[in-house]
Prior knowledge:
The protein is of the alpha+beta class.
Amino acid sequence: MKINYFAFGSNLSSPRLLERIPLASKHCVATLPQHRLRWHKSGQDRSGKCDIEFTGSMTDQVYGVIYQMTHNEKLELDIYEGAGIGYERRQINVTALHGATIDAFTYYALEIDRLLQPYHWYKEHVVRGALEHEFPPHYVAHIQSTASIADDDAERHSRELSIYLEDE
């Protein structure tokens, strides 16, 4: 049986997610109402990672992608995402662009530092994912306008973006 995962950050990029969970498959684009995309999750590398923050405002929504995977793949993704350490896995309801309500799991940040910024490579994963899945231009522009910083670890920067070399 397949389980629905709502990706909203670096896992929006299918090359990024498929590198981690090779047999996951895209189901659809969906939105999570009353939430805002934030970059304040404290990463182990001391940079900002994506989080979805509940606002309660009907004017706020986060765009994401529903990927389908098995239970065992979900447990594997939990390891990558630091479930129980950096993120808490939660069940949510999202709305597919075609209107259906979908039950899915996603991750909420446990440690927040609003002063953190993402590394350029991390932001690139999110931008590429938003473009790949044809998110609305205003949403893509919002992601692109996010301030980001250089990673002092040049090898990590290259390694993270190497998944896109075949596309170019």
